Amino acid sequence: MALDHAILVSLLERPGSGYELARRFERSIGYFWTATHQQIYRVLKRMEGDGLLDVRDVPQRGRPDKKEYSVAGPGRAVLAAWLHEPIEPESLRHDLAVKIRGAAFDDPAALIHEVERHHRVHGDRLAHYLAGERRDFTGPGAPSPPDAARELQHVVLRGGIAYERMTIAWLDDVLATLHRLGRNAPPA
C-alpha cells in the first residue's frame, strides 16, 4: 500500500491540514501504517500537484493561514481503483523469530531480555489500542449508533488488538521455553 492510499482514506474520513493529518496518523491510522510528518507533507504536495487533492486556505487568527486538504474527484477514482485491485496476503517477516531459531546455536537464555523488551512494547501497544477503543468506540462518550465508516475503523482496530494479544501470548510461550532451556542447559 502506498502512503497515498492511507492519506486518501484519512482525508475522506475528515478533511484537514497536514498537521492534523500527521496527528491522525499518530493516533489511529498510524496503528497500521506509519509515516513521518515530512513524508506526509511531501506526499500531500505531490498529490495536490497531481490533482488528487483540493486545497483551501483557512484563515487563522494571529497565525498564518493553514491549508486544508480534501479529496478531489480524481483522488476518489484512484482510491476506488485501488480498493478493487487484489493485494497479496502479507507474509510474516519477523527478525525476532529468526533470532529465536538461531539461539539453538548459542545460549537460548541470552535472548530472554530481548524477548521481554518485545513483550513490553507489545503490551504498551495493546494498552494504547484498548484505550483508543474505549475513547472512540466503546466508552461512554462514543457516538451511537456508529456509521459504516466508524464500524470499519473499529473492525480494523479490533484486528490490531487481536494481533497484539496473539503476539503477547506467543512471547509468553517463547519466554517459558527460553527459561526452561536455560535451566536445562549443560554447565559450561
From TrEMBL:
Gene3D superfamilies: 6.10.140.190, Winged helix-like DNA-binding domain superfamily/Winged helix DNA-binding domain
Matching SUPFAM superfamilies: Winged helix' DNA-binding domain
Entries under InterPro entries matching the protein: Tscrpt_reg_PadR_C, Tscrpt_reg_PadR_N, WH-like_DNA-bd_sf, WH_DNA-bd_sf
Domain Transcription regulator PadR C-terminal positions: 92-178
Domain Transcription regulator PadR N-terminal: start-end pairs: 7-80
Identification of the protein by name: PadR family transcriptional regulator
Organism: Streptomyces halstedii
